[in-house]
């Protein structure tokens, strides 16, 4: 057992009981104020007590009427209250609400309060005591008994000096005031700060620079509300909570400021009703106040036209608020969209700071006749852990979450805390802040997340020990020091990347990424510098910065690359042909399904691997003459006016993807691969010893084969030609997470959905059971959106989500049809779809291992008994089909037909023709892969007339205008390439792709088509899709 720190005992008086509300169970009254660096553990005391104010790191004068009653009934005067930290080798032990009683002889620790505050337990033994951590049960302190009492003893009364907060930290907590104000607070409010002669803050230097002030125009007043100055401030960008303006009301005499945020400018309801005179400028935003002022008997004075100097009080207060708010944002490295939160905090702090105008008193003190409580102040933008038990739905959820402190409640004695993953703001009275490093930052560059190898202390861990090292045998209770975190750096990492090179150069991680990319450009001999010429079409370029994330949302790496502005290229001059290698989604799902089923045939192999080509576009050699300016930040000092003649393809060039594809294709063909005709991004290698399938999506590659040895050999050969990263087993590809489980693979885009919900602020929205309402149908007959930008961006993002979610294919297609003129109804339908995604966040597509290699499909058109054209805007039906390989969904589509159908048979037959084309394409792909289907493909249709027409020309006279579709389907049926069979409407799975369904029908289909939540898959509740025959 490791040796615990010993506590030297010291004698004190016998414990006794009292009945006072504030009681001390062990100390006698003694007028002497001899300071003892000893603390007595007292189970009969209700409060901690000290006789030396130097022991308190923070303290305020005690304004209560209670006295400390000791054992003989004597009442002792309480001078101050404060807090302190007892430093120890294993943890910091916090004592809050400590009473400073100068006339008491000993320092007392209330055991009950000590255990509650520090989550500790104290075990009393006959000749010693132990202090234990409640969570781990580990012993932290051991002491002995002397003269019948338990005592903590420290070497010096100055042991508490380490708990003093630095002037810079107080400078940040108070909202970046001047050094003069901090010194005044130190001397008058006992902040217990070390002396300092100067204080340099980069955030203040950047955000508080100003010109020489003008003289103020004042109005003499005798009461606080006799005259109220007011002014409106307009932000150049909307805040994160949707505000564009804020207005202040400045009370005379007290100088107290009230700030309000607003989306529009109408303030009749928020003006203080007891004011006598309102002084403002001539802005039109105050016109709405005229009627209210006349009713309330409030007079209004205005400044002369174009003379804001006459409203100097408001203008100066605006400057103070803006400078303080911007300093808070800069120090916390927060984006500017959080200005409303910073400005509200600035107003709160300004009202509590002393000012020379009020004879070194604060506005709060002058208005409420009591000093503010500086002990409750926290540093803006710092990590905190608020108590969130009332917000949680059940007892198994955590009682707290890591949040960012963003200000104070205006109506409650509570804090506002922002939870980063959900962007939800919590209001909590209780919160704990992580310890912070007291040294000021040396630059204005944003702080970055702590690298993984630093192992920061988790929120529930004990606070860090002092720097003194203790050698012990057991180290299971040792925690590393908590680092200073700036959580709004995490906000920037998840939502924004640097937009300019000047922003990126402030961050060493981005600077390293730029250096690595430029080194790769030089290594690949991407260009040569040549003198500029008037005949050259010299294009510009810019640095683009991206953060690549893993499937769990953590940062994988920072990517920086110079991108050419290819939109300045001229066809025929510096480019001719364009093409991008993009694998078809159906090909990806088919290869994944085949790798599962074929792995049952052989004992080893058919593992899925993932590769990433480094600087892929730089691998291709240009044949066109392309000239570009030198990348910003990397201009050759010897030839600053030269231009780059590109010899290698660069990102942004129109021909760059094609050049890279040709380079890769040539290498693969030389290695024995064949390029698929059905999908040009699929390459196939078949030899007597092995089979390898390779899929290309620009520079991302999926590879699988029947021999791990041959796979490894090929990857090694590929790495000799191209610089690449072997990412190992396939797990996260193009935003799709691939999770293997006992019966196959589970494909999900959960992270993509989370990011989409957070971006649209729908991450806390109420869930719904279906993606689209059945009634009323969506039409153009509604009010158009004023700004359709967000609608178009979200619908465009949802398009990619249908890669693994056929359940939303129809909804996305329907919303996409109104991109040219979205209305308020369409916006509500889009929000409903996002609410559905939030409720099905953990749903994904299942690919089974034991799926037979047989193609069959379900096809449908949106028709009913009386109306087969559901779209009342143009009466055009929707085509929907889903193709299976055994039990696995491989391909699906929900698309509007090109022309209006005159009958239900015509609408359905067009769907069958489209499905036939898809099945024949998959059959050709099957043949290229060296495989064959065991049975004839079948298309299931719920329209009997369509099945008759596909087999016999019984309705030929009515189908002349569908001649091409008719002959295409009929000929393939006659040759035996496929079969069209009838299925009842209740068994038609394609219904989900052509119309909005009620909840019961929708839920019955999504499980049949292969969509399940991840926990259900683990529990084995998945239902097999029956093979149709």
UniProtKB/TrEMBL annotation:
GO molecular-function term, one example from the UniProt record: nucleic acid binding
Alphabetized Pfam families for the sequence: gag_pre-integrs, Pol_BBD, RVT_2, SH3_retrovirus
Keyword terms, alphabetized: Aspartyl protease, Hydrolase, Protease
Domain (Integrase catalytic) ranges: 209-371
Regions crossing the membrane: none
InterPro entries the record matches: DNA/RNA_pol_sf, GAG-pre-integrase_dom, Integrase_cat-core, PolX-like_BBD, RNaseH-like_sf, RNaseH_sf, RVT_2, SH3_retrovirus
GO biological process terms, semicolon-separated: DNA integration
Keyword Transmembrane helix: no
Gene3D superfamilies, A to Z: Ribonuclease H-like superfamily/Ribonuclease H
Protein name: Integrase catalytic domain-containing protein
Organism: Centaurea solstitialis (yellow star-thistle)
């Amino acid at each position: 057992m490791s040796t615990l720190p010993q506590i030297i005992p010291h004698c004190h008086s016998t414990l006794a009981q009292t009945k006072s509300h504030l009681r001390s169970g062990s100390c006698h009254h003694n007028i002497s104020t001899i300071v003892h660096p000893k603390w007595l553990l007292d189970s009969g005391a209700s409060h901690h007590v000290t006789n030396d104010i130097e022991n308190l790191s923070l303290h305020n004068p005690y304004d209560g009427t209670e006295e400390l009653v000791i054992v003989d009934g004597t009442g002792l005067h309480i001078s101050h209250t404060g807090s302190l930290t007892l430093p120890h080798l294993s943890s910091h032990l916090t004592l809050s609400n400590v009473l400073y009683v100068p006339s008491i002889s000993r320092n007392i620790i209330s055991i009950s309060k000590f255990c509650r505050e520090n989550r500790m337990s104290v075990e009393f033994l006959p000749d010693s005591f132990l202090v234990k951590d409640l969570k781990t049960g580990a012993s932290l302190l051991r002491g002995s008994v002397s003269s019948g009492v338990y005592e903590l003893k420290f070497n010096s009364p100055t042991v508490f000096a380490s708990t003093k907060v630095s002037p810079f930290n107080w400078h940040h907590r108070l909202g970046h005031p001047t050094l003069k104000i901090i010194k005044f607070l130190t001397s008058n409010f006992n902040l217990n700060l070390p002396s300092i002669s100067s204080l340099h803050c980069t955030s203040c230097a950047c955000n508080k620079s100003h010109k020489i002030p003008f003289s103020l125009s004042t109005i003499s007043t005798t009461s606080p509300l006799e005259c109220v100055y007011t002014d409106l401030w307009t932000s150049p960008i909307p805040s994160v909570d949707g505000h564009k303006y804020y207005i202040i009301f400045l009370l005379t005499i007290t100088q107290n400021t009230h700030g309000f945020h607003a989306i529009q400018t109408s303030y009749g309801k928020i003006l203080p009703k007891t004011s006598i005179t309102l002084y403002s400028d001539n802005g039109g935003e105050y016109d709405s106040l005229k009627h209210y002022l006349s009713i309330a008997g409030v007079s209004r004075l205005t400044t002369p036209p174009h003379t804001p100097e006459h409203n100097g009080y408001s203008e100066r207060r605006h400057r103070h608020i803006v400078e303080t708010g911007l300093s808070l944002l800069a120090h916390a490295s927060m984006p500017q969209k959080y200005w409303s939160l910073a400005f509200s905090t600035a107003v709160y702090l300004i009202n509590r700071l002393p000012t020379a105008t009020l004879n070194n008193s604060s506005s709060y003190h002058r208005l409420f006749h009591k000093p503010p409580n500086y002990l409750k102040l926290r540093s803006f933008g710092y990590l905190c852990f608020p108590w969130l038990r009332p917000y949680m739905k059940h007892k198994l959820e955590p009682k707290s979450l890591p949040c960012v402190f963003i200000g104070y409640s205006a109506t409650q004695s509570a804090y506002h805390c922002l939870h980063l993953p959900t962007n939800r703001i919590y209001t909590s009275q209780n919160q704990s802040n992580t310890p912070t490093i007291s040294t000021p930052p040396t630059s204005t560059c944003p702080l970055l997340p702590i690298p993984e190898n630093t192992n920061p202390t988790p929120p529930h861990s004990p606070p860090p020990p002092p720097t003194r090292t203790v050698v012990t045998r057991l180290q299971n209770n040792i925690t590393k020091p908590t680092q200073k975190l700036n959580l709004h750096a995490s906000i920037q990492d998840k939502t924004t990347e640097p937009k300019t090179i000047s922003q990126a150069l402030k961050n060493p991680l981005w600077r390293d990424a730029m250096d690595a990319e430029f080194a790769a450009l030089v290594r690949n001999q991407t260009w040569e510098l040549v003198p500029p010429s008037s005949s050259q079409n010299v294009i510009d370029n810019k640095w683009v910065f991206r953060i690549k994330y893993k499937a769990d949302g953590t940062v994988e790496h920072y990517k920086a690359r110079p991108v050419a502005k290819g939109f300045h290229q001229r066809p025929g001059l510096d480019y001719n042909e364009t093409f991008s290698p993009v694998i078809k989604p159906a090909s990806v799902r088919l290869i994944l399904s085949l790798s599962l089923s074929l792995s049952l045939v052989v004992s080893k192999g058919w593992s899925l691997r993932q590769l990433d080509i480094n600087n892929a576009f730089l691998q291709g050699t240009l044949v066109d003459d392309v000239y570009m300016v030198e990348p910003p930040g990397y201009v050759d000092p010897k030839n600053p006016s030269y231009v780059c003649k590109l010899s290698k393809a660069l990102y942004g060039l129109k021909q760059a993807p094609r050049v890279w594809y040709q380079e890769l294709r040539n290498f693969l063909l030389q290695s024995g691969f064949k390029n698929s005709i059905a999908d040009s991004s699929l390459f196939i290698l078949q030899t007597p010893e092995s089979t390898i399938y390779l899929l290309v999506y620009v520079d991302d590659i999926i590879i699988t084969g029947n021999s791990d040895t041959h796979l490894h050999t090929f990857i090694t050969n590929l790495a000799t030609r191209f610089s690449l990263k072997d990412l190992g087993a396939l797990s996260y590809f193009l935003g799709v997470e691939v999770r293997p489980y006992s019966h196959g693979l589970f494909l999900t885009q959960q992270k993509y959905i989370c990011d989409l919900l957070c971006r649209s602020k729908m991450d806390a929205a109420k869930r719904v059971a279906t993606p689209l309402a059945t009634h009323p149908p969506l039409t153009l007959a509604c009010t158009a959106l004023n700004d359709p930008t967000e609608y178009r961006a979200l619908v465009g993002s949802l398009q990619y989500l249908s890669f693994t979610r056929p359940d939303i294919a129809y909804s996305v297609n329907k919303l996409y049809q109104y991109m040219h003129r979205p209305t308020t109804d369409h916006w509500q339908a889009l929000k409903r779809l996002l609410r559905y995604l939030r409720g099905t966040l953990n749903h994904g597509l299942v690919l089974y291992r034991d799926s037979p290699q047989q193609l069959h499909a379900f096809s449908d058109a949106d028709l009913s008994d009386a109306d087969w054209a559901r779209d009342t805007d143009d009466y055009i039906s929707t085509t929907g089909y889903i193709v299976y390989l055994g039990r696995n969904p491989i391909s699906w589509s929900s698309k509007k037909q090109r022309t209006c159908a005159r009958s239900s048979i015509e609408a359905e037959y067009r769907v069958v023709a489209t499905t036939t084309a898809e099945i024949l394409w998959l059959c050709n792909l099957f043949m290229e892969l060296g495989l064959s289907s065991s049975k004839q493909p079948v298309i299931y249709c719920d329209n009997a007339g369509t099945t008759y027409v596909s087999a016999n020309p019984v309705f030929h006279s009515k189908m002349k205008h569908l001649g091409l579709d008719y002959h295409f389907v009929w000929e393939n049926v006659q040759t035996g390439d496929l079969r069209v069979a009838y299925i009842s409407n209740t068994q038609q799975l394609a219904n989900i792709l052509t119309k909005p369904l009620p909840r019961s029908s929708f839920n019955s289909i999504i499980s049949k088509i292969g969509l399940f939540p991840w926990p259900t898959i683990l529990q084995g509740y998945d239902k097999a899709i029956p093979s149709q025959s």
